[in-house]
Amino acid sequence: MTDILIETDSERVVLFIKGDTPPNFAQRALLEDTKFLMHRCNCSISYTPREANKCADGLANLGATHQDNLVVLDDPPSAIGPFLVLLSNLTSLRHLDLSVCALEILSLRFNQLSSHLPDELEQFKLLQFLNLRNNLLSGSIPTTIGRLASLEYLDFERNQLNGTLPQSFGHLSKLQQLYVSNNMLEDIVSEIHFTNLINLNRIYGSGNQLTLKVSRDWIPPFQLIGVELASWNLGPKFPIWLRPQKDLAILDLSYTGILDEIPIWFWKFSSSLYFVDLLHNQIHGEILYLFIASKVQHIYLNFNHFSGPLPRISSNLEDLHFSNNSFSRDISHFLCDRKDKQKKLAFLDLGENLLSGEIPDCSMSWQSLILIEMGNNNLTGNIPRSMGHLGGLQSLHLRNNSFSGEMPLSLQNWTNL
Question: pTM here?
Fold first, then answer.
């Protein structure tokens, strides 16, 4: 299939497919699947208003001509047996076309599959896309997975798989995207697991109890766009192997046991970076500047041991979470920095720190704020009246400080809070 044009009357769908996938997007898996398949078949997508959209009618006509309860198996090899067992509890299955000898795409996500992954998986030599996300699969990942030489996309997220990642993963030289988050995997992951993964650009493995053990001077063979390893054991040192990653956009290393300062090079990191989550570690030290020249939009550094003054931030930032640290000193320089430039920040969380001084009257450059959390600090003085003119503000937390004077009338009458 080549040069296929897809029309949709949802402009938002077109924007999602053509742009970056938001890290917290509820349907991220579906969106990533769609992008992969469209790339494989050389598809393009365009927005067409409803009155001109003929796509839905065409699909409806196609469905009307389909035979019910159709199953096609073209000369199935022995490998199909375990997969038919795997499929046996898909009671709503109506159409199944498995030309197994040339099977390239297999997606069975969001079902109730409760078997083990069969060793016979290796016989699907041409398989490029395997998605078994959100099932009840248990047992270990078979070592034969490393013989799927054509595999580019592998998704086992949200199952009950245990054991470790087989070292045979290192043989999947064409693998681009690996999703194994939210299973029960444990044990050691080493450099051997990544030996030949030269095309890997996404690895999502959060929610497992894996330990990454690599040498201090290890240089990965891949260039990542997204890495989420929350709850892995990566510490105690900050992972230096990230430094060569020039295209990184999404980074989640929360709950990973890092007990270290963040090296200076990290704050001058990839210009593509827009999501950083390092919460619930024991990272310490001061932050002098925070991705000033980058596209970073979401930063989670809460529940660490950062200290010193608040750093300067980029005007592109939308979410900033610094709570439960030891940031101190006056906050005027932070809130009034480049006050003539409008900020995009929507969520500002500075609670549970050691911040002091008065809140300056610089709110007019923060018109995008939805939430302000400054509770449990050492702030003093009056609450500025300009806070009541933040049109989008919905949540304001200033408890357990030492403010004086009265609450400004602009806030007393604020119905959005």
Answer: 0.81
Question: Tens of pLDDT along 144-200?
Answer: 999 999 999 999 999 999 999 999 999 999 999 999 999 999 999 999 999 999 999
Contacts of 250 (CB under 8 A, 6+ apart): 23, 225, 226, 227, 228, 274, 275
Strand partners, 250: 226, 275
In this structure, of 42-46, 49-53, 256-260, 401-405, the range with the lowest mean pLDDT score is 49-53
Give domain 4-62's CATH number out of 3.30.70.20, 2.40.110.10, 3.30.420.10, 3.40.50.720: 3.30.420.10
Establish whether domains 4-62 and 233-417 are of one fold: no
Superfamily of domain 75-222: Ribonuclease Inhibitor (3.80.10.10)
Contact indicator for 338, 314 with CB cutoff of 8 Å: no
Does residue 133 contact residue 109 with C-beta atoms inside 8 Å?
A: yes
Task: Classify residue 46 as exposed, middle or buried by CB count within 10 Å of its CB (0-12, 13-18, 19+).
Answer: exposed
The CATH classification number of 233-417 equals 3.80.10.10
In tens, the pLDDT along 144-154 reads 999 999 999 99
> Which residue in 306, 300, 318 sits closest to 255, CA to CA?
300
C-alpha–C-alpha distance, residues 112 and 97, integer Å: 20
